[in-house]
Design brief:
The protein has 122 residues and is an alpha+beta fold. The chain is 17% helix and 45% strand. Strands 2-3-4-1-5-8-7-6 form an eight-stranded mixed beta sheet, covered by helices on one side. A hairpin with a 3-residue loop joins β6 and β7.
Length: 122
C-alpha cells in the first residue's frame, strides 16, 4: 500500500495516567524506549511490533491522537502538501538514527504527521 498509516501517538499532559488507563482498557503492552536527555518514550505494542507511543505535552495542552503516514521523500511531500493547501504546523525534524517527521494540517484543519525512515523498515 502506498503511504500507509505507520504509527499513532497519544500526545497527553499526563503520561502516567494515560499508560494506566489504556493498559487497563485494552490488552496493550507498553515498553519504555530510552530517549537521550529526556523522559522515556512509552511504545505501545498490540502484538509483536510497536504500533504507537505516548508522548508528553505541557500541562494545559489539549491531549490528542496524532497519526503518522509513511512517505519516501519528506521534503517533496511537504512541498506537495503546501501546494495542495496544507499548513505546516511543525517543520521537518530529524529523530536520531530513526528518521524525519513533519506535522501538517489539511485544508479543512485535520492534523496529521508524515514520517520518512532513514533505513527502510520491513
Amino acid at each position: 500500500m502506498a503511504n500507509p498509516f505507520l504509527h499513532i501517538e497519544l500526545q497527553t499532559n499526563d503520561v502516567t495516567q494515560a499508560k494506566q488507563f489504556y493498559t487497563s482498557l485494552f490488552d496493550w503492552t507498553l515498553e519504555d524506549l530510552p530517549v537521550p536527555d529526556g523522559e522515556p518514550y512509552p511504545v505501545i505494542k498490540t502484538g509483536e511490533a510497536p504500533n504507537g507511543g505516548i508522548f508528553g505535552v505541557p500541562r494545559g495542552s489539549r491531549p490528542y491522537w496524532l497519526t503518522y503516514i509513511k512517505v519516501d521523500d519528506i521534503q517533496a511531500s511537504v512541498v506537495k502538501a503546501k501546494k495542495l493547501g496544507a499548513t505546516i504546523i511543525e517543520e521537518i525534524s530529524e529523530f536520531g538514527e530513526y528518521g524525519w517527521m513533519s506535522v501538517l494540517s489539511d485544508p479543512a484543519g485535520a492534523v496529521f504527521a508524515i514520517w520518512q525512515y532513514k533505513v527502510e523498515q520491513h
